[in-house]
Specification:
The structure holds two protein chains of two kinds.
Chain A lengths: L2 H11 L2 H4 L9 E4 L11 H9 L5 E2 H8 L3 H13 L3 E3 L10 H12 L2
Antiparallel strand pairs in A: 1-2, 1-3
Helix pairs in contact in A: 3-5, 4-5
Chain B lengths: L3 E4 L26 E9 L5 H8 L5 E12 L8 E18 L2 E7 L7 H8 L4 E7 L7 H10 L3 E6 L9 H7 L8 E4 L4 H21 L1
Parallel strand pairs in B: 2-5, 2-6, 6-7, 7-8
Antiparallel strand pairs in B: 1-3, 3-4, 4-5
Classes of the chains: A mainly alpha, B alpha/beta.
């Protein structure tokens, strides 16, 4: 990969990456806690994340894809905003297969598509 | 000799942190909507992105992860290390099922050396679709072995290219050494109904598996 691209993204998340507990699974959904206006102290990248999920929740994977940053960078940005209570998250997919109730509802929903 | 690459999970390295428990959602409020995911695996050009595109409500997106490792030269004193970075790309799509659930379909990265990413993708997944191009059966072994070993519910789907299969389903079942309990279906990845039927089949299979466990 391009070294510059890596370095540029590293600069984006800086030192926080080392301490941020940004271990959310890539399918975790997030939504902006309010529609703004946001503090002018926020970085442009953070504002961009908030704008992506103002109206409806989206996954961390989508944030990474839309912003063209690595998943790890998207996680750090999301982590920053959660720490500032600017983002609300969904429950995450657990470690194992979803429970029977969820599976049966999914089956019903899929058939109805 | 090839440099040895080790996956580091410290700090910025954007690896999936395999051994660590998932972070609980923090900071109070939790959204009413929950994600669900299904993994779409298969060899190169088996039709994974076509499959996702046929049913996704968004044009498939690509997300990238970077794996940082250290290459250690074996013929030096061991004190010279070089940082290396490999990126892995995954295509995915989304289906809003209801106000309370969103289904994500994640295509797996093709190359076997990206198994670390498969672990993150399959964690908590409903199950997996193994898309098979019957002209390249050998490309499906890795995925079948992986899901068997991890106990992930999966169905094998033979993607018809130009309406043709190079081998009939029974021959494929035997060639891939798939047990009789694993559903096998024939589909056209370009066709929404065909894709939908395979997802329904997978969820039915996951339900049976869940009841048995």
């Amino acid at each position: 990969m391009s070294e510059e691209r890596f370095v540029r993204q590293y600069a984006l998340v800086g030192k926080r990456a080392r301490t941020s507990a940004a271990d959310f699974p890539l399918d975790t959904l997030v939504q902006a806690a309010h529609k703004g206006p946001y503090s002018s102290a926020l970085r442009q990248e953070h504002i961009e994340v908030l704008h992506l999920c103002t109206d409806s929740p989206i996954s961390i994977a989508e944030i990474g894809a839309h912003m063209k940053v690595f998943l790890g960078v998207a996680r750090v940005l999301v982590g920053d905003l959660i720490d500032q209570q600017l983002l609300v998250t969904s429950a995450t997919t657990g470690d194992g297969t979803p429970d029977l109730n969820s599976l049966e509802r999914l089956l019903h929903d899929l058939k109805a598509l | 000799m090839a440099p040895q690459i080790s996956i580091l999970s410290k700090g910025f390295s954007m690896t999936s942190r395999l051994s660590e428990p998932q972070a609980p959602a923090r900071a109070g409020a939790i959204l009413a909507v929950k994600p669900l995911k299904i993994v779409v695996a298969g060899g190169f050009a088996a039709g994974k992105t076509t499959f996702v595109d046929s049913i996704s409500e968004i044009t498939p997106l690509t997300t990238e992860a970077a794996m940082t490792g250290l290459s250690v030269g074996v013929d030096n004193a061991g004190d010279v290390t070089t940082k290396t970075t490999t990126t892995v790309a995954m295509d995915f799509g989304r289906i809003t099922l209801s106000e309370s659930s969103m289904l994500y379909l994640f295509g797996t990265p093709g190359q076997d050396r990206f198994w670390f990413m498969w672990d993150e993708l399959t964690k908590g997944a409903v199950g997996a679709i193994v898309l098979v191009d019957t002209r390249r059966l050998d490309q499906s072994f890795g995925a079948v072995d992986y899901f068997e070993e991890k106990g992930v519910p999966y169905v094998v789907c033979l993607n018809t290219f130009d309406g043709k299969l190079a081998h009939d389903p029974d021959a494929v079942r035997s060639a891939l050494a798939i047990g009789p309990d694993i559903p096998l279906c024939v589909l056209d990845a370009r066709d929404r109904n065909s894709v939908k039927a395979s997802l329904v089949r997978l969820v039915e299979h996951a339900i049976v598996r869940r009841r048995l466990s």
